[in-house]
Design goal:
globular, five-stranded mixed β-sheet, single chain, four-stranded mixed β-sheet, alpha/beta, 2 domains, about 45% helix
């Protein structure tokens, strides 16, 4: 179970994009919770959506009557501005675009995007479906006979919170609540295969499964969206109106401008306008903050991207770069974050660099300018390099090609200082994957020694492969932190930040 956090998300539906907050599952007082920014009134649950992150930030500063008001990190959220409440690419969900995704070939991007969209809709439905609660109350009333209800004192002893906490899921009871179309969709085996990744849609059987996925969406997605739309409040709890929403295309253009360097100003005109409207109610969360005092559950490395792009740009980038077989990579070390390129030649990693040094660039634009130049480097001889040099597709890395080496160091330090049980071994896997490639290319023998199967760090990585959900122990973390710091120093020595 992750530590309490709140994450900004964006939903695109009916050609408009709304911003809200999501609180991923967290544990508090022995109970599991999950929520979105919204309210429940008269047995009707609503998620509040806002036309801009600035309008969302303004609402969070003033509203107090909503489902996230008691969240452990809500006090942090109230002090955040528009830039902090702007979702990253991983938390933007285009519900209008699922048909287009299903019409594409089932590459890694398409499968992950579709899986993420259906997952967030399922989470919304889980939080918004109040029908199950009503049915449960009826069932509990039917189960109690006259003898159970004879004494008022005994009746008052029934704890409804406990009853709801232990309520079986809809799958167990056969009740589908207010989201019957969604329940039918997620029950389709093709949809279940999304969780297996792109491999589930490889080969003839995989192609048939992908076609079945498209058929299921054609049949049910419109009904799914209709069910969800009944619970989406596009007035921001009364703070905005539909006229405040630009079209989804206009929102994307704004995001692209911000991505090119225009700072998101929480005090710009749209924020000021939001401040003048009456405050209202929210109900969700996002990874903008984590409760420092949390001690329950487990956490993974978030790997927050330092370099981001709008979803449409990221999608086009993924298609091009996978096609040429050379992928953008983000590396984060204490000296800074930078972009480079990586491919594999006979299963050996090769980076954009020379003589064992890897070139890093601060922005996609700087990396693209270098690629268009005539400087010799170790990727020049790759057959597809002329396409890279000529393309105008920005080098935006996919999530699995981002390696934040500093965050793992920080988390290991937290575990060593007493946060044992909060971090799973799987947190080691992605950073170590990036490190191994760098060490192979730059011939970093010391890194190989530290990651050897007999070394403490190597043993921890091996355990992560076997038991990814096993949690790190405090007594191990201190030694691992020291070894990891040495790994990061070695890797940093192979990186050259270019202008």
């Amino acid at each position: 179970m992750a530590r309490p956090s709140i994450v900004p998300i964006a939903l695109t539906l009916d050609d408009r994009t709304g911003y809200t907050l999501w609180a991923p599952p967290w544990e508090e007082d022995g109970e599991e919770w999950q929520a979105f920014l919204g309210t429940t009134e008269d047995d009707a649950a609503r998620v509040h959506l806002f036309p801009t992150p600035a309008a969302l930030a303004s609402f969070c500063r003033t509203a107090t009557d909503h489902d996230l008001a008691d969240h452990p990190v809500w006090p942090v959220v109230t002090g955040l501005g528009a830039a902090d409440l702007t979702p990253d690419d991983d938390h933007r969900y285009d519900l209008d675009g699922v048909y287009d995704i299903a019409a594409e070939n089932p590459d890694r991007w398409a499968v992950e995007e579709l899986a993420a969209t259906i997952d967030i809709v399922s989470r919304l439905a889980e939080c918004l479906d109040t029908a199950d609660d009503d049915e449960l109350d009826d069932e509990l009333g039917e189960d109690l006979d006259d003898e159970d209800l004879a004494a008022d004192d005994d009746a008052r002893d029934v704890d409804p919170d406990v009853e709801l906490e232990t309520r079986p899921s809809a799958d167990a009871t056969g009740r589908e609540g207010e989201f019957e179309a969604l329940a039918e969709l997620v029950a389709r085996p093709e949809v279940g295969s999304l969780g297996l990744g792109v491999e589930a849609f490889a080969g003839r059987a995989g192609e048939d499964a992908w076609v079945g996925m498209g058929s299921a969406l054609d049949e049910l997605w419109e009904d799914v969206v209709e069910e969800l739309s009944a619970h989406l409040d596009w007035t921001g709890a009364g703070t905005v109106g539909l006229d405040d929403y630009p079209s989804a295309a206009e929102s994307l253009e704004d995001d692209e401008l911000d991505d090119e360097g225009d700072e998101l100003d929480p005090d710009r005109d749209d924020d000021d306008g939001a401040d003048e409207r009456p405050a209202a109610v929210p109900a969700a969360a996002a990874p903008v903050a984590a409760a420092p005092e949390a001690s329950a559950g487990t956490s993974t490395i978030s790997g927050g991207a330092r370099i981001t792009a709008p979803p449409a740009v990221a999608a086009a980038a993924a298609e091009f770069w996978e096609g040429v077989g050379i992928l953008p990579v983000e590396l984060v070390v204490p000296e800074g974050a930078g972009l480079t390129l990586r491919c594999y030649v006979e299963d050996e990693a090769r980076f954009l660099g020379r003589d064992g040094e890897i070139y890093l660039f601060a922005t996609p634009a700087e990396l693209a300018r270098f690629c268009a130049g005539d400087e010799e480097h170790d990727l020049t001889g790759i057959a597809s390099w002329p396409e890279v040099a000529a393309t105008d597709v920005p080098p935006v890395p996919a999530d699995q090609d981002r390696y934040d080496l500093t965050e793992l160091a920080e988390v290991l330090g937290e575990v060593a200082d007493g946060a044992a049980g909060l971090v799973r071994h799987e947190a080691l896997l992605q950073p170590v994957e990036g490190v191994r490639d760098v060490a192979e290319y730059a011939d970093l023998a010391r890194v190989g020694e530290l990651l050897a199967p007999s070394a403490p760090l190597g043993r921890a990585v091996a355990l992560a492969d076997r038991e990814p959900e096993a949690t790190l122990r405090a007594e191990d973390a201190a030694a691992l932190r020291a070894d990891w710091d040495e790994v990061v120093r070695e890797v940093g020595g192979a990186l050259v930040f270019r202008d």
